[in-house]
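User: Hey, quick favor. My workstation is busy. Could you predict this chain's structure for me?
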Amino acid sequence: MNKNNMTDFFTQNAAWHGMIGKIYALLERVKISEEQSGDVLRLRKTSRILSIGGTTAIEGNRLSPSQVRDVINGKPVLGPPKDIKEVQNAYAAYELIPQLNPFSVEDFLTAHRRVTSELIHEAGRFRTVGVRVVNGKGETLHSGADCNKVPALIAELFEWGRESGAHPLIKSSAMHFMIEHIHPFRDGNGRMGRLWQTLVLAKWNALFEWMPVETVIYNNQAGYYEALQRSNNHVGKVDCAPFINFMLEALENTMYKYIDVANTSTIDQPDNVGVNVGVNVGVKEKIINLIETNPQITISRLAQLLNVTTRTIERHVKELREKGKITRDGSDKTGQWKIVQR
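Assistant: No problem, here it is.
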């Protein structure tokens, strides 16, 4: 990567303007939801817990959402010590967001030191060995940059971030991808990429410090890794446009998630699923079938056809969007649904 040609690592997409516009519109709804929540501090703490649970679970952490909450609240938890430490470290790193400069290499290493403290010997240091990302079959999906070039590559990336006129939503997604692509550390690269996107966005708009995008990514890990892989599959260069597309959709869905948390102030508890699971799964499948038949179908029409309340449809639609199964193009009145995966 040459700092004079940094824009070469992604191709502009005209659709991004519309996606960014939807996020701007949702920011107003987020502000209103915070005001109406009655307890902004509790709402933000709940959202932060969701972020920590999501970003560590993506890496294989086995603690349940309720255990993550208890660890963060300082309560004793019976679980693998490594998993507990990962949660403690991630929370400590996210608490540093107000103090961190997203374009400072020194702050980048400071944050990594928090994320991996007492977990690896190289906490807070760039790797000095080669690394490979492999799949379950041991096949190489991606090789990190030459370890001797890592410091210069990160410095160039951060200089681009500081000087680029790209919209922060685009810039943060591109930096997230490039951190994953360069793979500057022996461990903690995924957590650092996600943290750094949140940091870049939080410096643009403070509300993004509390958006639990990690939870939305966790719920659609297949899409996340597919977007990373597609962005890497270019001969001789990278093009992270597929990853930027994925993250813009994830950020939009995250804002719906935050609004929902504001309305409930509870943490999803997948380890305490109720007796309505079978019914709920059936409703979701029926919603997808109806959307496939009529992409312009409205929430009220879905409720009428399925003989349930609009609130029930809204809840299921929210969950489908969070899991990356459906998206919506355009406004609520004139737009249409798109099925991403069944």
